[in-house]
Fold these 3 entries.
Entry 1:
Amino acid sequence: MTAAGPVGVGVVGAGNISTQYLTNLTSFPDLDVRFVADVDAERARSRAAEFGVPGCGSLDELLKDDGVELVVNLTPPALHAEVVLAAFDAGRHAWTEKPLAITREDGAAVLDRAAARGLLVGCAPDTFLGPALQAARRLVDERGIGAPLGALSVFQNPGPERWHPNPAFLFAAGAGPVFDLGPYYLTALVQLLGPVRRVSATAGSSRSERTVHQGPLAGRRFPVGTPTFVQALLEFRGGAGGVAVFSFDSGLGRTQLEITGGEGVLEVPDPNQFVGDLRVHRLDGSVDVVGVPPESPTRGIGALDLARAIRQGRAPRASAALGYHVLDVMASMLESAERRAAVDIASTVEPAAPLEPGWDPTARTLA
């Protein structure tokens, strides 16, 4: 494996989200996408051909490619830790889709083995590296709304079975609205307000089975194995508080993220997106609009930052440590709801450094 020039990448998982990733990863000059792997060999071949990737096949075959330095893991959540650990055992760095793992134990194993092998690992979401949340971070850090007091985050809709062709995995343990969408909101909150120290939550589900609405499986029923409505109080180590609601049980769709400070309320765009203007609601009733560039590379810029970190000998911004803290918070929310008691968060993390001015994913920086 090379130690200079573009970083060789192998993608594991050729499902729906791989289209967004491969569109971007194959366009970044600092990356060389060499392989697409999937348990379905034909799907791997088709996706590789679509994006001009030279290699395709199984995970084992990917790990035999000496040109692959970084494994990008897009498999279902229950496989995240297993695939990342296999990458480490083969001497590869790894990037994984969220969540880092579906249990704290598996998440800790990822962190421990990466440290033992001297390898880097990053974890989605990387939306906080987009221009919208970077602008929000600068505004909060510069006290543009005064000292932060609290936050409100709400994600709710009727459930992904209405649009996803095979949604059962989104209602299994390790998924649901908390593990599927929670990482976007909680990662943004940690970046804006710092780590969480305690949570108190309640949870429930409206029904034990759901029905697929779209695609070849339409009409098929499947079980619900995780809470689909969760609401929590968050206490941040820096002193701010927060309210979080995550629901697949609502006929009223909402994507809402607000930070309240002593001098105003910052209305942040959907944290599952990379762009969108910010609005600051002042105490006198005026509203300041902070414009954000309307276009930005999307999913994959965290993997790019990780690749550059490999060459530069630094930690990635969308780090596994951040992913583990968010995992710890999500697991603690469900534990709190089950125990009907507050849960202290054992982990902590420092918010990632903001991107430097002029950071450009389309630039060639690795000679």
Entry 2:
Amino acid sequence: MKALIAGLSLLLLGGCATNGQPPWGALTATGSCPKPGADQELSLNLADEMANDGKLHASLANLQGLPANLPQVRLRQAKAYRLLGRSEAEPLYRSLIGTCMAAEGEHGLGQLASAKGENGQAMAHLQRAARLAPTDEKIRNDLGVVYLNQLRVEDARFEFITAMELKQSDPLAAINLVTLLIYQDNWKQAAQLVSQMGLNPDQVTEAQARAEKLKGSSAPVAKAEASAKNQVATVSDAPSNPRN
């Protein structure tokens, strides 16, 4: 599998708050995270299991009994609230900046911005997250998605391949790379990647649908650029008015 990814790389790279601060702000020193106790670890693990099973409300209920000064608690709360579409997610992610989980905080803020279609903000957060945690494949993948949404195709390709090499068992970046290749009408490489990574038909259908959506979003831009070029040509080709 490592040889496969390397080959693909060569092929494809051609409470109340005071002073505007949350109540937990003074509880966690910058750049540090207090270590949870054994019982707290068990509660965190239980919350993770429930979240993985889609029981986000139950996960949040289990987290309520844990101290808010633990960034590990706030991160899990933020993720659950984000998936539930609730506004509590953003301040919780922001509270992680300056702790040992700053990368996760920037990542979450990037995900929130991306979901709103705010690609510039998403890119800024995800670039900071990638600098803080350069080997986190989920951050690299999500940064690639934002680049692709902006039609920065080569930047997106780089991030997807990086994510694939970092974690070869996760198909998400491969699906996104197939989306990019279909968007470019590069069906041959897309088919090779699908076969080599063992993607299933549903994953391919998802990639194709997203690629068609990208093509639809880029068509008005291309049309406007073509129209502007035609107008320039018309003006430059027009005869000058004779002078008296």
Entry 3:
Amino acid sequence: MEKQYLIIDLKTFYASVECAERGLDPFKTNLVVADASRGKGAICLAITPKLKAMGIHNRCRLYEIPDGVEYIAAMPRMKKYMEYSARIYQIYLCYFSEEDIHPYSIDEMFIDVTEYLKLYNTTAEKLAKALMRKIYNELHITATAGIGTNLFLAKIALDIYSKHVKSNIGILNEETFREKLWYHKPITDFWMISTGTAKRLQKFHVECMRDILSVPEDLLYKEFGVNAEIIIDHAKGIEPVTIKDIHNYKRQSKSISQSQLLHCGYNYTKTRIVLSEMVESLCLDLVRKKLVSNTISLYVGYRSYPGTGGSKSISILTNAYTKILPYFQEIYDKTTLRGEEIVRLGIGFGNVYPEDEEHLDLFTSYEDIEKERNLSRTINSLKDKYGKNSVLKAVDLVDGATQRQRNCLIGGHNATTEDAD
């Protein structure tokens, strides 16, 4: 039986949720999801279709909206959007097994509907229409869909083809992919073809997917390594990976990271304070997940200068904040530019292992480390019960510290479900 994959996308999701909460029609309302308190330079996370119809781009900044265009600026509410996404996921679970669903993002989900078409005596298109209608009736969120014989075809049927059909449902198989999209431009419209990849393909005079097959495969492998296989497969309309493969996949190595934008621009000293906060936060996350690490990385981004930082393997495998912080500070002090305005800070732990594989050096007391870990567990427990700001360090209260504010965010944005307008 030929596979049938469905992907449903919630149209301009954040903006649609804000309109639904206000009882407004996103196709008739000028609304942007942006933190207007950050000034005209604030990024719009989403805009309504009505604003898009005016030629305004989705990820614009507020100052890019033409003068004279009145609009509602809705404060981002990430927890609210997650709630809507969860409710829509529950709708899917009424019809499909969890094993056949793959959440691709907060507003897009793949579903393997192959076995369900016979069960419900329907077609993939009719099934997509029924789900889109149910989502709209229950939550007033408009959706679009893509249907394909593999995950790649379903995704580009959504991203490219659904925009040009009245039903908002794109349908592709390998044959119709070649007929309708083989010569489509720009090539960056295709899933997994980034601007950087497109520039590298231009060296071989590639402008569309069909052109890829004109390039000798050995040259593509020399340029892209193992990723050339994916590029070549997609040019043929092939994608061997299934949802089952995704669910069965287990990463060989793990890492965790954290980053933040420093919107007002920080100096060297203030950023060092933020660094200590972020290291503590990520160490608490390691303890929560019962993980340890022996590899750290740091990135410092500047307003008008290339980023600095680096990575370092440390001599111990641990999650103890007091042991790890000095290594981060060492990289920071050696590589960070004094006098330059800092606008981004990122840290990460690589080579993450289970906590029972912890390894310390001869100069470190296991008893002291276990005392620190027990304290971290207690802090995590209190934060879980009473909120992230229920336990703070003195450093979180000094000028320049950001942890208290970040504790109120999800994904770097306002986390509340309450209307902030």
